[in-house]
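Below sits the subject:

***
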Amino acid sequence: MEKNVKLVSGIFIMALMLAVLVAGCGGPSATPAATPKADLTVFAAASLSGAFNETKAAYEASHPNVNIIYNFDGTQSLRTQVEQGAYADVFASASASHMNALKGEGYMNNSTVANFANNKLAVIVPKDNPAKIGSLHDLANPGVKIVMGTKDVPVGSYTLQILDKMASNSSYGPDYRSKVMANVISQETTVNYVVAKVALGEADAGFVYVSDVPAEYRDKVSVAAIPDSLNVVAVYPIGVLKESKHPEEAQKFIDFVRSDEGKAILAKYGFTPV
């Protein structure tokens, strides 16, 4: 009988020790599960690609639980994608009119929408300048091959406004606009395509944003400034979409873009503060 009691007692003690050991494995010393990253989808105008890629690196370095996913395209195309049901947390536009349309249609959290940068246009020509363009007047010369944005993409709309101003200026004359438009061989849906065609020598000149010559093309094109009196100011607004699953993180990203650090990045790429 005494042997049986000792046997049962021994088994009980071993079971108790095993239970304590198992419980200890799940205690405070266990490594906690990593917090999953929040994917933040940002629809941004193609002209922002250089600056925003640097912004992404800076933001993710200080916000390790956020993963920025970009969709760069012409603003008009991004607006259409949103209207057709594409998901995004943040919308950054190169045009107030497209942002206002989304606000009016109920896609934006309107209280979050704010302007964050300005831009203006310039003319670029290939480095070897085969058309011998020495001034903006030469864009009206017969045979010059010009590329610009479509009238629906902001850079194209701004280009048309500039040409209207130039046609009303006595230095250029009323037929300047029609002569330049007669030289347009292609109208592109993003400003990046305009830059590429000029850099690759497929056109003699192109209307782009000041911010739009990426590093890989800077040794392939020359930039001709458009006088401020004839130029237009492109205003860039940004905001959170109503369908965002991460509205707080989306607002934090916008706050970063509009912060001193964010403005400094934008300035490196030719944008000016609002």
Residues 1-9, 18-25 have pLDDT under 50 and may be disordered. The beta strands are 38-45, 66-73, 90-92, 114-119, 121-126, 146-149, 184-188, 205-209, 221-225, 234-240.
